[in-house]
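About this split. The held-out portion is used to measure sequence recovery: a designer receives only the structure tokens and must propose an amino acid at every position. Recovery is the fraction of positions where the proposal matches the reference. Here is one held-out target exactly as it appears in the evaluation file.
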């Protein structure tokens, strides 16, 4: 028998503490940023930022602009990036900000496209970088890093001065994009040193309304000086090979008000140390995040593999938990630069507990190492569309948990749900997905939400539904839509658009749940729908039996005589929706078959929908349509899609076997007794080797996609390493290959005794080193793009 799912919304809480924190925006900022104890504000209104990590020094500068536009298209409003010291000053005294290290140009590109910028200046970054980003020459000095040792602070002062010089004039006081600066990273027990670093950065000339610190691991912070930011990952490469799915990751698929994640970075600090007061921080600061897992790296000894739903469900759960700032690490993967004196990845050779790939830092992110689009991009973008239109409401709504909570982190039977509410309206969140251990269907489900102050109790939907295994969604409750009160919708809000003189709320159905709309009858005079049934029940107009799609537009005339539309899309079509200003008019944009369809009549017919990106407004260059400039177009659509991950064409790549693999190298171990990457010599002697010729006429931006098996793969052009990967059952993409080159791919098999975690369904394939198939994945632009 189904159990009741009931929740009582408390009366609105006392107003948040405002103005009590010493975070001050520039006096002349047109949209001042402030912090209250429960949310952030911008221009005097609650503000719900979305930040995504993208490391400029791990991406060729020629690709920055397009990749930033893809991030913006995905709903990212702020770009965060470590400023990795060793990438800029590998050799002492030679500080480089040229080429892919051009911090200023990267920040200016963010500003140009309306993206905020958050430099994470260290000096210690971690970021799976050699020495955590501290240069070798510094670590060889007689000093104690990450303390107030004067011998350490002296070079740090010079480093901060170099950063400040690059970012001069890009602060908010000069109209620049820098909204926050992070000091250090994952330093949990040195509040005095954190304050010293903040003061040094300010003295160097750095300025931002928000100064932040990572807050996991029982952090101790200098009082009211740094805004604590939290995180949570769906998986972890830094735990033991045989440790199973960590409980510190499992917890993020529940609705809870616990912010700290003691698991992040736990390989580099004792988890038993707890000097901070998490409850005091929660009372004084809003729940803001900077490291929600947009993916996960792979270490040699542990190679997690994530699905899009793993990332999407975690993100949605955090909104339901009370997050007021969605910050992702990583949102865009990258490639480690090769140093002049050494490789620059975290490794056993540098006394770190994990061996990471030499080059790839793909992170299984929504946008990959070469800008590949992945399905997790769509999962997060749908949530970001909600925040773009309703984030100002959600930011000021408190998270409320139901009466019946799961019985611990291993309870897979109790439905996980929560509400964000303000006492009069809200958003209901459900998560029925987690990695590794599927959650069951929940038949006969309905929800009862009691609002305070005599407001009507809602029991929804009108008939119980089955919440399918793997589903996660957000439903609006008592939402005002241009004068119509939507009592509830068993479909997720996407965005609102103005079409034909009326507001249209776009919603996305959840696969397996029939959408139902309930309107307050007192706010409407007529309702029509293309399909389904309309009935008035208990003061509500119920619309049921809708067939979700581009024609499922419910037309409503309000009690004030205006018109409102409610468009319920099926889940697949909703993933292609973009909303913005195009050619001077607000439009609902769906993308299919290389054509941009606008929503002048909202009914957008879309077949063979393909993955796409759209950014509004367009870049500063002239807008092109079918090769012709669009005169006078200030705004437009920038769009590109990649094949194999959503459109275009693939061409088989012939693979020549040069030599078969020899016996697998004997296992070796390093720090903490964890398995180490086989020595370089094995790639020259026992690795299987394949030759793939790169076509002379290969289109720019194409990828080589390899289906392969084994342990470790490395790819070379001449004697130069151009790509590497640890096998986890995923395809291996290699990009940025020079036309006409001869590529050599070498693959080692995994020794049977190696203590390495590989997902169970791929474990059998580690014993055979082979490239089984290869294809070229081309990319091409739409007919509408920046010129």
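Reference sequence for scoring:
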């Amino acid at each position: 028998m189904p159990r009741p799912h009931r929740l009582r919304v408390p009366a609105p809480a006392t107003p948040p503490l405002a103005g009590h924190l010493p975070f001050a925006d520039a006096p002349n900022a047109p949209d001042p940023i402030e912090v209250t104890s429960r949310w952030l504000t911008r221009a005097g209104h609650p503000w719900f930022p979305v930040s995504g990590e993208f490391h400029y020094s791990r991406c060729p500068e020629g690709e920055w602009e397009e990749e930033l536009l893809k991030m913006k298209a995905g709903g990212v409003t702020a770009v965060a990036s470590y400023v990795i010291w060793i990438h800029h000053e590998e050799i002492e005294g030679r500080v480089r900000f040229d080429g892919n290290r051009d911090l200023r140009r990267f920040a200016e590109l963010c500003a140009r496209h309306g993206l905020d910028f958050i430099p994470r200046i260290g000096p210690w970054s971690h970021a799976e970088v050699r020495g955590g980003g501290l240069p070798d020459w510094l670590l060889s000095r007689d000093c104690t890093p990450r303390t107030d040792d004067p011998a350490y602070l002296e070079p740090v002062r010079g480093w901060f001065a170099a950063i400040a010089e690059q970012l001069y004039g890009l602060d908010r006081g000069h109209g620049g994009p820098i909204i926050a600066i992070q000091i250090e990273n994952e330093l949990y027990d040195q509040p005095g040193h954190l304050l010293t670093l903040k003061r040094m950065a300010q003295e160097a000339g750095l300025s931002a309304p928000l100064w932040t610190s990572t807050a996991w691991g029982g952090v101790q912070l200098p009082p009211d000086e740094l805004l604590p930011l939290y995180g949570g990952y769906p998986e972890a490469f830094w735990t033991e090979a045989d440790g199973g799915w960590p409980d510190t990751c499992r917890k993020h698929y529940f609705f809870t008000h616990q912010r700290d994640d003691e698991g992040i970075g736990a390989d580099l600090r004792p988890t038993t140390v707890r000097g901070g007061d998490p409850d005091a921080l929660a009372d004084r600061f809003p729940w803001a995040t900077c490291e929600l897992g947009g993916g996960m790296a792979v270490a040699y000894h542990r190679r997690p593999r994530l699905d899009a739903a793993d990332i999407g469900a975690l993100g949605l759960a955090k909104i339901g938990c009370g997050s007021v700032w969605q910050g992702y690490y990583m949102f865009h993967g990258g490639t480690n630069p090769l140093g002049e004196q050494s490789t620059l990845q975290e490794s056993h050779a540098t006394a770190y507990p994990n061996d990471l790939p030499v080059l790839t830092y793909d992170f299984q992110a929504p946008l990959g190492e070469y800008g590949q689009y992945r399905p997790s991009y769509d999962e997060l973008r749908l949530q970001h569309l909600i925040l773009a239109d309703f984030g100002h409401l959600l930011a000021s709504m408190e998270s409320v948990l139901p009466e019946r909570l799961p019985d611990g982190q291993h309870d897979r039977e109790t439905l996980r749900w929560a509400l964000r509410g303000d006492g009069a309206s809200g958003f209901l969140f459900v998560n029925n997905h987690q990695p590794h251990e599927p959650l069951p269907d929940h038949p006969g489900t309905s929800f009862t939400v009691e609002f305070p102050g005599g407001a009507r109790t809602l029991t929804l939907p009108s008939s119980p539904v089955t919440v399918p295994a793997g589903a996660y969604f957000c439903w609006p409750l008592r939402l005002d839509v241009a004068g119509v009160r939507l009592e509830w919708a068993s479909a997720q809000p996407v965005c609102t658009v103005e079409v034909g003189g009326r507001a249209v709320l776009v919603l996305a159905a959840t696969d397996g749940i029939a959408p139902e709309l309930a309107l307050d009858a007192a706010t409407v005079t007529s309702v029509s729908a293309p399909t389904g049934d309309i009935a008035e029940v208990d003061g509500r107009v119920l619309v049921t039996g809708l067939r979700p799609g581009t024609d499922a537009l419910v037309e409503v005339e309000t009690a004030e005589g205006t018109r409102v539309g409610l468009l319920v899309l099926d889940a697949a079509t909703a993933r292609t929706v973009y909303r913005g200003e195009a050619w001077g008019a607000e439009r609902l944009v769906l993308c299919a078959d290389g054509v941009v369809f606008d929503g002048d009549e909202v009914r957008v017919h879309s077949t063979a929908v393909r993955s796409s990106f759209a950014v509004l407004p367009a870049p500063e260059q002239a807008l092109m349509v079918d090769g012709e400039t669009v005169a006078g177009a200030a705004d437009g659509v920038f769009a590109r899609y990649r094949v194999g991950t959503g459109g275009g064409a693939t061409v088989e790549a012939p693979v020549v076997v040069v030599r078969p693999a020899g016996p697998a190298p004997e296992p070796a171990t390093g720090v903490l007794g964890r398995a180490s990457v086989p020595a370089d010599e094995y790639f020259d002697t026992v690795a299987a080797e394949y030759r793939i010729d790169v076509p002379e006429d290969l289109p720019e931006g194409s990828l080589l996609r390899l289906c392969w098996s084994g342990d470790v793969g490395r790819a070379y052009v001449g004697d130069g390493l151009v790509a590497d990967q640890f096998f986890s059952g995923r395809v291996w993409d290699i990009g940025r290959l020079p036309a006409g080159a001869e590529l050599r791919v070498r693959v080692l098999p995994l020794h049977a005794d190696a203590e390495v975690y590989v997902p169970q369904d791929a474990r059998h394939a580690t014993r055979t080193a082979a490239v089984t198939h290869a294809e070229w994945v081309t990319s091409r632009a739409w007919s509408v793009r920046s010129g």
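Annotator remark: Confidence is low (pLDDT under 50) at residues 581-586, 591-648, 780-787.
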